[in-house]
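Quick log. Single chain, no ligands specified.
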Amino acid sequence: MSGRTQNGEAGFDSWAHSLLQELESQTPEAIRRQRSSERASLKVNVAIHPGNASDRDQGAIDGVTGDISSGGCRVMSERPLRVGDLYKLRFERGEVDLPIVFARCLRCRLVREEAFESGFAFFTKIELASAESDRSSGDLL
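-> predicted structure:
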């Protein structure tokens, strides 16, 4: 029985070591290089609604985007969001015309008291052509 334990421990140690190496390699710069789409630096008000069926009766959380890409966005809000949960994002109509999207919260971190930064991955890619043309003309920032 001790042979199995030693092999099991060796297998676990190797697995844990490889996970630690992977975590160490995930610097902010490395993550940026892995993104498959360019991000537009857009500040758009967004209402963040719970997307799970059991939470849909809860109120929306207001936020402001920091950047948006065709596959996701970064949002600042006064309340933390639950990582892994599904949300419906409703962007304010105005300078850019973005559709309502469902997205998964990938991360949420405290920036300062009552300020949280969350990263979302959209379930369906969106078209940013109009937002990018507005941004290049300098109208959004």
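Residues 1-5, 130-141 have pLDDT under 50 and may be disordered.
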